[in-house]
Amino acid sequence: MTDDGAQSRPGMLPIQPEAWAAPRGYSNGMLAPASGRLLFVAGQVGWDADKRLIPGGFVAQFGQALANVVAVVEAAGGRPENLGRLTIYVTDRTAYLDEIKAVGEAYRAVMSRHFPAMALVEVSALVEAGAEVEIEGTAVIPASETT
User: Which end of the chain is more exposed for a tag (fewer CB within 10 A), N or C?
Assistant: First the structure.
């Protein structure tokens, strides 16, 4: 059964156990197409192409980190909706929760209404000094979309 709150495009199919309450802002599972190529995207922080962290705090870094993940997917010939999984690492869970509405807006600006399986993990620090968020992902690029 699919999650009615997630936008499904050809390829990825959101999975939702029938007896469970619908998730909000993520999918409990994503079923990849039978054919396609796996893309593992390394953790991306909120920096620009010159590896400078962007100003503006947590939400700005979140949006940039997510845009960086999507840039890797696009470089492989994919689109945001090819992402099946995201893991979000934050140095301050409270900052994430305090800014949840703005985080959601930043998310939708990059991903629209595609909500893959996600996990949020609070960590004591990230390797890049000053980084407040790091996002990694897994995408399945349909064979017809690969270069």
Answer: C
Q: Is the pLDDT of residue 122 over 60?
A: yes
Per-domain boundaries in the chain: 35-145
**Cα-based torsion angle of the residue sequence 38, 71, 129, 53 in order, rounded to the nearest 10 degrees:** -170
Helical segments of 2-147, H only: 58-75, 93-98, 100-111
Report d(CA 28, CA 14) in Å as an integer. Answer: 7
The CATH number of the structural domain formed by 35-145 is 3.30.1330.40
pTM for this predicted structure: 0.85
In the 8-state DSSP scheme, what is residue 46?
S
